[in-house]
Amino acid sequence: ACSTFSQKSCEECLKNVSCLWCYTNNTCIDYPVRSILPSSSLCSLSNARWGVCWINFEALIIALAVVAGLILVCITVCCCYCCYCRRRSRSRLDEEEEQLARKREERRLQSLQRKHERKLKHDEIRKKYGLLQDSDNPYSRFENE
């Protein structure tokens, strides 16, 4: 029973987690479990201590609310930032992929152009030495002169 610690010290009262210390009349009372906050008829929030003696219940509630709010804001900012970065990285990857496809196509076209130029050069050499067959009749007999 918390009432046995009344008129003693706050530290002795708060060793039991289910107790609440009230500085107005130096009493140790059972924490009202049914309600989250103790009613003002029991003890005012500025004079109530729970858990530790050096911070009043009112400041404890405000501090916990601020910490919870900061955590929620941080989680929200992190989620938004991650979603934005993921979308941005996808678009960047798509741009890089398109750029690579363009470069691949340019290299393929350059390769075809060089192949065509080599064929023309070889055909000129064949024509110069009489090795080029007529394209009209590919089965004509090869004659040496």
Report the radius of gyration as a whole number of Å.
Answer: 44 Å
Q: Helical proportion? A: 40-55%
The number of domains: 2
What is the 3D form? rod-shaped
Major β-sheet annotation:
3 strands, antiparallel
Quickly give the structural class: mainly alpha
Taken in chain order, the helices and strands follow as: HEEEH
**Number of β-strand runs:** 3
What is the beta-strand fraction?
5-15%
Q: Roughly what is the average pLDDT, rounded to an integer?
A: 84
Describe it for me?
The chain is mainly alpha-helical and 145 residues long. The protein has helices at 10-14, 57-128; strands at 19-22, 27-30, 48-49. It folds into two domains: 2-55; 57-130. A three-stranded antiparallel β-sheet has the order 2-1-3. Strand 1 (19-22) and strand 2 form a beta hairpin. It is rod-shaped and about 130 Å long. The model has no long low-confidence stretch (mean pLDDT 84). This is PTTG protein. The chain crosses the membrane at residues 59-84. Keywords: Coiled coil, Membrane, Transmembrane, Transmembrane helix.
Compile the SSE list and pairings.
Blueprint: H1 10-14, E1 19-22, E2 27-30, E3 48-49, H2 57-128
Antiparallel strand pairs: 1-2, 1-3
Short description:
The chain has 145 residues and is mainly alpha-helical. Helices cover 53% and strands 7% of the residues. The chain is rod-shaped and about 130 Å long.
